Amino acid sequence: MHTFGDALAAAAGLLSHGDAHLYAIVALSLKVSLAATLIAAAIGLPAGAMLALVRFPGRGAAVVVLNAMMGLPPVVVGLVVYLLLSRAGPLGAAGLLFTPAAMVFAQTILIAPILAALSRQTIEDAWAEHGEQLRSLGATTLQSACTLLWDSRYALVTVVLAGFGRASAEVGAVMIVGGNIDGVTRVMTTTIALETSKGDLPLALGLGIVLIATVVAINAAASWVRAISLRRYG
Hints:
Layout: H1 4-16, H2 20-53, H3 59-69, H4 74-85, H5 100-136, H6 141-151, H7 153-168, H8 172-178, H9 188-198, H10 201-233
């Protein structure tokens, strides 16, 4: 049994010596989370913009449902994706279960509603400020959406960074659909849970340090983007 000090020193040694196993796990984690974030952004940002601008019966209910989906339980999402990708499921023939692609799929479902809901609010605020001008220029809904997405790009970058932070910290869904297979689908969060249960604290702590550093870096990047936005637009 390691004491905390021994485990922390061993974790620092793994990090400083470039432990191949540790950094392979980190690389896979970042790859999966980045892919899920890019896909979710491609879906969520336009969807949020259109929901902000288009008026239709039931729009209020759609906004409520979208906001509620920001709190989707990860294990439930993991279960649904597992059933979809299992052999008996509708997507079973693709053979994606227990692969990084399945993990990307689950993370995308988790963070796309977050990006859509936050971008909807951002675009609604921008529409309230610039909507009259866009209407006077004869802009269509699609043109207005594209214009406001571009005009709000700095705010939306922070939204995307928040989504990436959420994806990188996910454990429940990716463990269910990825299977936590060593060298194939084992990412930082699932490895931390596994190695802690096994008593391998140095590896768990080393990955924990990297995960915390990642979260700090994301928040620093978001603060930097906000500062740029304030300097440019006041």
